[in-house]
Amino acid sequence: MFHLFYAFIWLITWLPLSILYVFSDVTFLVVYYIVGYRKKVVRSNLSNSFPEKTESELRSIERRYYRYFCDIFIETIYQLHCSNEEILRRIEFKNVNSLTDEYAKGKSVIILTAHYGNWEWFTAFSLVLPPESPMYSVYKQLKNEKFDMFMLKLRAKFSGESIEKRDLIRKMVELKREGKMGMYALISDQTPNARSVHYWTIFLNQDTASIVGAEVLARKFDLPVFYAMITRTKRGHYLGEAIPISLEPRLSPEFEITEKFMRILEKQIQDAPEFWLWSHKRWKLKRPVENQTTKI
């Protein structure tokens, strides 16, 4: 089955993206109106996040989300044959110097990302970095081995390197020992493991368990932290901007880095909600009644 899927993907992604968007439009009709993929999850997430909006407004966001969800799939597989030149025409990067300036100080950088905009295309950021100091994308290995290898192939398309999260600290120590710099990109808007919840906050009107791993690593290795703000400027085109969160993490109060990240992401979602991954079960954990803020 996987080989048939791969053969189909390999063939159709030779087509121009403008034509592939026609497939996206048709897929939207099937996914939204016929299959109703995770529609219950999406509706619950939206209504809880925006209690002030009318039913009509929520349905409008919902439809726009599903349209974009289909676009993301098309854009992701399009990477198979997309050249470096084309991807850099489709995603422009700003404030690169604010990140690479940290190299002059002998510091690597942590980049916090989220399931907002086209997070997969953000791997092209490696193309504007010094070749000897690339971006390392941290990921969790997928259960399906073949699909996992397929996604790794896509993410390595633009010369970045993927690191399984269990190997991250070892890689960071190794690079530091060798005197090498790099940028570690961590998707940080996921739900943490129930056994490793250290911080709760209010995010999109709801009690939310937050991942604090990036903050812990920033303190441990004294690495500045930035947020990768990805904004869609028009269909098939994005702007990637580095927003500083903490340049001296060891001087930041506990959980301040995590909280700043959540607030920036929240504002971005509120401004254009259709570009976030609403079909993810983000709020499956419930804050214990006695819990206010659990310390690490």
Which characteristics define this entry?
single chain; 296 residues; alpha/beta; seven-stranded mixed sheet; two-stranded antiparallel sheet; 17% strand; globular
Write a structural description:
The protein is of the alpha/beta class. It has a domain at 86-275. It is 43% helix and 17% strand. The chain has ten helices and nine strands. Strands 1-9-8-2-5-3-4 form a seven-stranded mixed sheet. Strand 6 (200-203) and strand 7 form a beta hairpin. Helix 3 crosses helix 4. The longest helix is centred in the N-terminal third of the chain and has 24 residues, at 55-78. The radius of gyration is 19 Å and the shape is globular. The model has no long low-confidence stretch (mean pLDDT 92).
List the helices and strands and how they pair.
Blueprint: H1 2-12, H2 17-35, H3 39-49, H4 55-78, H5 84-90, E1 91-94, H6 96-104, E2 109-113, E3 135-139, H7 145-155, E4 161-164, H8 168-177, E5 183-187, E6 200-203, E7 206-209, H9 213-221, E8 225-234, E9 237-246, H10 256-271
Helix pairs in contact: 2-4, 3-4
Distinct helical segment count: 10
- Bulk shape: globular
Structural class: alpha/beta
CA gyration radius, whole angstroms: 19 Å
Strand content: 15-25%
End-to-end gap: 44 Å
Summed over residues and divided by their number, the pLDDT gives a mean of 92
N to C succession of SSEs: HHHHHEHEEHEHEEEHEEH
- The low-confidence runs, each spanning 5 or more residues with pLDDT under 50, are none
The largest pleated sheet is described as: 7 strands, mixed
Overall strand count: 9
Q: Estimate percent helicity.
A: 40-55%
Strand order of the largest sheet: 1-9-8-2-5-3-4
